[in-house]
Amino acid sequence: MRIVLLGAPGSGKGTQGERLAKHLGVPHIASGELLREQVAAGTDLGRAVAAHLARGDLVPDDVVLAIVGEAVAHAAQSGGYVLDGFPRTRAQAERAFLLARPNGLDADAAVYLALDDDIARSRLAGRAGGGRTDDDAAVVDHRLQVFHDNMRPILEFYGARGILVTVDASLPVDDVTAAILEQVPPAAA
Ligand code: AP5
Can you give the CATH number for the domain in which 150 is found? Predict the structure, then answer.
């Protein structure tokens, strides 16, 4: 089962990604986590992307594809994945599709976690101080803006492929997980 989780900052991609991956017995791959690990480790790549993360701007597509692509390709060949935080642009979605499609390893489902900005802001305000420097209120506003600037073409891309499902992400965590599993039954993979 290969699932892509889409949604605004604070919509629960990380929370649901972890739960779904456990439930399905596949790896949870989070692009933001992979990037933050590079920053924390002080690698060349980490130094190159640190300012983008701090500002809440997207990291260039080539960098993200290099870092996420390998993990996704490996997981796709060995049973599947739950991918959170990627794609963030239509170009990322198209490039990932072109790479995976010839091997029959493109996503089975794209789950959009729909949430009002005000709820997202209040969730991230609740998390502020927990180590994510981009949870500062001004940066959160910018992350939400970046999300709105990019998400519609991505939803259209997956909608046209007939694999997009939308879930109300304002529900309690357990209910969101149940709603995803109801709409994307593992047997459908
Ligand atoms: P990334 O790490 O992907 O962050 P994000 O999209 O801003 O999302 P968050 O991690 O803040 O939220 P989430 O949706 O995962 O929600 P969570 O489960 O944590 O990206 C960070 C940065 O990396 C980007 O800004 C960019 O710079 C770069 N980047 C990453 N991917 C990239 C890409 N593909 N291309 C280019 N750049 C990229 O939950 C949030 C909070 O809400 C938690 O406290 C949680 O406990 C709570 N919560 C979750 N669900 C519920 C619920 N149902 N009810 C109540 N509370 C809930």
Answer: 3.40.50.300
Output the pLDDT for position 187: 56
**Minimum CA distance residue for ligand 1 atom 21:** 32
Q: Give 1-11 pLDDT, tens digit per residue.
A: 999 999 999 99
Q: How many helices (H) and strands (E) does the chain have?
A: 8, 5
Within a domain: 188 = no
Q: What is the distance in A from the centroid of ligand 1 to the CA of 12?
A: 6
In a domain, 189, yes or no: no
The range of the structural domain enclosing residue 12 comes to 2-183
Average pLDDT score over residue span 83-109: 93
- Other beta carbons within 10 Å of 16: 25
- Exposure string over 168-181, b if 16+ CB within 10 A, otherwise e: ebbeeeeebbebbe
Number of folded domains that form the chain:
1
